[in-house]
Design brief:
With 145 residues, the chain is mostly helical. It is built from six helices and three strands; from the N terminus they run ααβααββαα. A three-stranded antiparallel beta sheet has the order 1-3-2. The two termini are 19 Å apart.
């Protein structure tokens, strides 16, 4: 059975609202650490994909190269990342995640997970498994498109 346009609209709105709430929970820690949301997203991207060139960072964050360069400069000054020349091609410079960058990620993710744990505490095991299964299925199908 294909979802109706109204159900699709409701699902998109609900996912967006949940993402916003989760984002706000992590945001308080970012402010304490003086890290912007864009810096956090950059750190997540580097951790997920490994060391990235500036071009790759631009593409993954959907920002202009000048924005990514300014971002990398700020993150490097804050000792979140470092620029490292590639061993095989010295013209290529990649951003590597440093220990402090990883600590920032861990702190924000831990806060988000604690918040989710509080919310999910009232779920039954069956409700939790059903939610998790549905989200896994949605993610898998979205990745195929």
């Amino acid at each position: 059975m294909a979802p109706t346009e109204e159900l699709t609209k409701q699902l998109e709105e609900t996912l967006r609202q949940a993402d916003t709430i989760l984002f706000k929970r992590g945001r308080s820690i970012l402010m304490d650490m003086e890290i912007s949301a864009l810096q956090f997203n950059a750190l997540l991207t580097i951790r997920e994909f490994g060391s990235l060139t500036m071009g790759d960072l631009c593409k993954n964050l959907f920002v202009a190269c000048s924005t990514a360069t300014d971002l990398a400069d700020r993150m490097e000054r804050s000792e979140l990342v470092e620029r490292v020349r590639d061993d095989k091609d010295r013209r290529v410079v990649k951003l590597h995640l440093l220990a402090r960058g990883n600590q920032v990620l861990e702190a924000v993710i831990a806060e988000r997970q604690n918040f989710l744990g509080e919310v999910l505490r009232d779920y039954t095991d069956e409700e939790y498994e059903e939610l998790l299964h549905g989200l896994h299925l949605l993610t898998q199908r979205m990745e195929l498109k």
